[in-house]
Design a protein that fits this description.
By secondary structure, this protein is an alpha/beta fold. The protein has twelve helices and 13 strands. It has a domain of 210 residues: TIM Barrel, CATH 3.20.20.140. Strand 3 and strand 4 form a beta hairpin. Pathway: Secondary metabolite metabolism; quinolate metabolism. It comes from Duganella phyllosphaerae. Keywords: Decarboxylase, Hydrolase, Lyase, Metal-binding, Zinc.
Amino acid sequence: MNGANPRIDIHSHFFPRVSQQDAAGYHDGSAPWLQIDDGGATGSIMVGDKAFRPVYQALWDPAFRLEEMDQQGIDIQIACATPVLFGYTWQAAQAADWARRMNDLALEFAAHNPDRLKVMAQVPLQDLELACEEADRAMRSGHVGVQIGNHLGDRDLDDAQLEAFLTHCAHQDIPLFVHPWDMMGGNRMKRWMLPWLVAMPAETQLAILSLILSGAFERIPEKLKICFGHGGGSFAYLLGRVDNAWKHRDIVREDCPRLPSEYVKRFFVDSAVFDPGALRLLVDVMGDDRVMLGSDYPFPLGEQKIGDLVLSSELSLDAKQRILHGNAASFFNLE
């Protein structure tokens, strides 16, 4: 670790160099792939023959990423798949094969500098047995955790199958990072990036409350390591509303034996909230031992100067060190 404030960024994304030919054999030819422009500095994520998102070199080039990490003062960055790679709607066996390929490519990406580049795996979440098998294989192969989406179609994290996967990860000491995807809202949020600005925080809050209010956190072993991206979405800001509802409406507490705010010690969040007041609230709600530096790099909605929000805050030096490094080192077994 370098400097007085070493930094581990736990929330960044990558996309392997998957060509259109590579993707052609999956999901009727509509699997995502990477189109790199002439010159190699920019490109597009493609889904079939449709452009999904413009991207740049840091997403697929580990050497270039390390240059930017040096510029940003980041010691270690943990990368996970761009969620469009999940394949949750595919036939399970094909999704499992795809996940293995993406996870092996992730390790190739990290092999450029394994001390500074770490990766999380993806799994075919639609099949419990295959998901557990791939999670175990990935961890044996060198991944430091598993990233999952916050839901599977209409099934949230309190679904029996998804709860069973979380329980498996608890028993196997597999850290989990939950990322929102396939956002709610449909055509009502078709412009101005509203799915990312409104639905994405709501999806994350929904995932957390699904585990709390269903009683799932009472059934899942307490040793589960689970972190939610984007500062937990709307959760911290609206927790008072949830506690109030639990106190006054029996339908809210019928499956949840304890006040919802008592469950904040069961999970972690990252620091990607972009505002000093929001960070103060997040730390007040979660505690500085439950927040980890996360940037959402290298996307435009990520923190542009990674870690500056924490470093410039009024938090104590000890709290800053926990958020910038200590919590992540323990969570991902990097110590």
